[in-house]
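Predict the 3D structure for this chain.
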Amino acid sequence: MVIKRSIASIILSTGAVATMVMAGPVNASPPRAPSANSDHAHGPQKLVDKAASVAVEFQRDRGKAGVMSQARAMYIVPEYGKAGFIIGGKGGAGVVTVRHGGMWTPPAFYTFGGLSIGAQIGATGGSVIFLLMNRKAVDVFRSSNKFALTANAGLSVVTYSTGSQANLGRADVILLTNMRGAYAGATIEASDIGVDTDRTKEFYGRNIDQNALFDGRVAPTAGSRILTRVLPK
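Done. Predicted structure below.
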């Protein structure tokens, strides 16, 4: 009896193994070729993760949390400077998310050519959030490529730490930063901003129209919720 049971067990086990070999690995799919920006430290999910961390950090300040809660959209640049998401030796990258009621859209990826800090170019590094306070500011991202967030672009840009309440109320864009020392409170201007098609395609697995993201017509992903769930409702 024991021998018969052992033989039966061997047959069942052999059949199971054969089935697995014929079926192949579960949920296997061909690997997608990485983009030029897809290394572990600078890929799209890492950019989203760091943007979420910056949003949480800034909201620990009650004043910053207050203006963030009034924003229509945000362009979050989690790192710039030497340790940032550098492209071609300068500039970097960030994500844009737009508020619809109490919900935020999955991120749209944008690069920039450079950041100017007051009269200086290329500060040592830090984090910055450009709060897009109205439709005019959001529409710049919709309708343009290789644009700038500056007064010269027809936008009223105010730095949070130095702006009066009256100026903040009239601003198209409010800047939040964690810079310290001599650069604290300086005006930050982003130039040569453009759609980051490589990171967009890698993150969503296909080409995505930026307007579809801004309109909330793209379903959120598990990776995108890491950011959107920490933003003010």
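The radius of gyration is 23 Å.
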